[in-house]
Specification:
With 347 residues, this protein is α/β, with parallel strands linked by helices. The chain has helices spanning 12-22, 43-46, 82-91, 108-115, 133-142, 151-164, 195-198, 213-224, 257-267, 317-331, and strands spanning 2-7, 28-34, 58-59, 72-75, 95-98, 128-130, 145-147, 174-180, 203-204, 230-236, 243-250, 274-276, 294-301, 306-313. The protein has 2 domains: 2-149 and 318-331, Rossmann fold (3-Layer(aba) Sandwich); 152-315, 2-Layer Sandwich (Dihydrodipicolinate Reductase, domain 2). The chain contains 10 helices and 14 strands.
Length: 347
């Protein structure tokens, strides 16, 4: 039995991870949940949807005692905080999956420029594996440190990857337009997530400066084997969870919708959590709500020779906690789909 410790388990991503793991049929067992806010309280009194599924108490974090309790630690904490915990955890011989952005970007200068903090353990960046199984599956199996992808990048990368592994797309004209539910901002109340400000309201934010931009560019550049530049505009929409990313790619050659769909279907033929939709059918966030699936649909705009690719994920599922379970399954030799093959909650 693999024992899992979740640091910061009372937040949205941490609690969603607990929900996925509560019914995991394999060898993954939650042995420790920490929360500085709720230490000493029962998990299911703070997270009542887990009543009857988990009988643990939240604990205060004692970083040096974790080796005696768990085999792997999942860090569900913000950036900058994670980099304080990772070095002592690895030094204890523990494996780590990190929700934060602290080890996603391979270039420390890029990280410091976009996140405006000094990276305190840059030597560990080269040891981290970017936790997107559809790209790095074999590396994840043996990784000591897995950097779980961001939610926006997951949808954008999966939408663009099948065309960027060839020379079919102009690399300098990629547009990513994303709509997200407000749970991506976390549980702490803010003006921009306050219900009266969000209900019946859609707004773009961080145009040209969103921190997920270099992550998207890094991974798409790796696929293309040359630099890729994107224009990324995120929006908040009045729903709790879900992301719909629309990616615009200018093709260098004429292709029909059917031909592009065939390429996507072949590319993802063996991917259990990417569903390529038939021609004329487009993704919707409700279809993936509460799941680890990514639905992809597309349409060729012959007039502009652009292909419009849409990807829908649950930002707390495939964009966060579901991906962690997928990575944990790989890291500990379990079937990759274990505990994750559940449909979305529609309507």
């Amino acid at each position: 039995m693999t024992k899992i410790g979740i640091v910061g388990a009372s937040g949205y991503s941490g609690s969603e991870l607990l929900r996925f793991l509560a019914n995991h049929p394999g060898e993954l067992q939650v042995a420790l949940c920490t929360s500085e806010t709720y230490a000493g309280q029962r998990v299911d009194s703070v997270l009542p949807h887990l009543r009857g599924f988990l009988s643990l108490d939240f604990e205060a974090l004692d970083i040096n005692s974790l080796k005696a309790k768990v085999d792997v630690v999942v860090l569900a904490v913000p950036h900058k905080v994670a980099m304080e915990f990772v070095p002592p955890l690895l030094a204890q011989g523990l494996r780590v999956v990190d929700f934060s952005a602290d080890y996603r970007l391979r270039d420390v200068d890029t990280y410091e420029a976009w996140y405006h903090v000094l990276h305190t353990s840059p030597a560990l960046i080269s040891q981290a594996v970017y936790g997107l199984p559809e790209r790095y599956r074999e590396d994840i199996r043996t990784a000591r440190l897995v950097a779980n992808p961001g939610c926006y990048p997951t949808s954008a990368i999966l939408a663009a990857m099948p065309l960027l592994d060839s020379c079919a797309v102009a690399r300098d004209s990629i547009i990513v337009d994303s709509k997200s539910g407000i749970s991506g901002a976390g549980p702490k109340p803010r003006d921009n997530t306050h219900y009266p400000n969000r209900e019946s309201n859609v707004v773009a934010y961080n145009i040209g400066v969103h921190r997920h931009t270099p992550e998207i560019e890094q991974e798409l550049s790796a696929v293309a084997a040359e630099p890729v530049c994107v224009t990324f505009t995120p929006h908040l929409v009045p729903m709790t969870r879900g992301i719909l990313s629309t990616v615009y790619l200018r093709l260098k050659q004429e292709m029909s919708t059917e031909a592009v769909l065939e390429r996507y279907a072949a590319f993802y033929a063996n991917e259990p959590f990417v569903r390529v939709l038939p021609a004329g059918e487009y993704p919707q966030t409700k279809a993936v709500l509460g799941s680890n699936y990514c639905d992809i649909g597309l349409e060729m705009d012959a007039r502009t020779n652009r292909v419009v690719v849409m990807a829908a994920i649950d930002n707390l599922g495939k964009g966060a906690a579901g991906a962690v379970v997928q990575n944990l399954n790989l890291m500990f030799g379990l079937p990759e789909t274990e505990g994750l093959q559940v449909p979305g909650l529609m309507p």
